[in-house]
User: Fold this.
Amino acid sequence: MAWNDPGGRDPWGGNNNSTPPDLDEAFKQLKDKLQGLFGGKPGKPGSGSPKKGGSNLPIYIVLLVLIGYWLINSIYIVNEQERGVVLRLGEYHSTIQPGINWQPAVIDIVQIVSVTDERQYNPPLSQSLMLTQDENIVIVPLTVQYNIKDVKDYVLNVNNPDETLEQATDSAIRHAVGSSNLDNVISAGRELLRVEVELRLQSYLDIYGTGINIIDVTLQEGQAPEAVKPAFDDVIAAAADRERFINQAEAYSNQIVPQARGRAQRAIESAAGYRGELIARAEGDASRFTQLLVEYERAPTVTRERLYIDAIEGVLANTSKVLMDVEGGNNMMYLPLDRLGGGGISSARETELLRLLENAQNQINSAAPSSAGSPARTIR
Assistant:
């Protein structure tokens, strides 16, 4: 039968027609029980108050102890490197600065976080296995150093900031390595890769509002899995040899190119000088020929003889022997100029020698028959 049926009983043991329990009476009964527990005499049932002479001192002592405990637990000491976040009834209230602070316990919840200590995160090697853009497998160990720049964001914005940092680190390093080839990961571009990972990781954390500040990201030397380590070592050795050959070629180029440029410049300047010399000589010869032509037109015979003498002087100045004969004759005159001049021919001796040659030539011409119709002298 249901409890609210006529004649039934309610779940609290009373009849449906009974009145609700008196709360004042219930409190009085509870008070009597407490007094009996602490040595007091409980009042009679139905009486409005305990007997005269009953003491409420134990209750007051308990209340004072509870209040003291509450006051002590409401005191918070925040160190210099820490900050505290106050949540009042579950809602952000304020941020506690270093020093002694009092916040009502139970009402306020204080979470103290160290903000100046540098923390470190090292992903396990199982998470460092990555694939580069040129489809090479590589292990890139790294270390992330960070601290807390905004304690409110660190406590309230994300459920687990450290786990968020781990996931963001994994995403940033995989994105950077997947966009780079093997050479940039293991050698030349590792510093640029480190900077890219640091900037990308900080941007991720700022977007999530974690309140974490990245101090430094350290990329260790890339490694290959054990299964492909020999081939990976060969690739590293080949890359090192390539860098060495490139450096040697650049050094040789830096040595040869300036020399070649210097020789080219010297050849250009020499050609320009030779060109200027030829032009000047041609202009001088043309000017001398023009002047000589004027003199020749004035006195052809004298000019012709002068030219002949000058030609003889030029020839004899470069020879040490002179042979002279006459056409149609058997006589030949030999003049040892090197012996006559003693090794060199001075201008005075040269003039005298020319005079002797002219006399000899005149004698030969006078002795030769005049009917020959051609010049009777030949000088060789």
In short: The radius of gyration is 61 Å. The first strand starts at residue 75 and ends at 78.
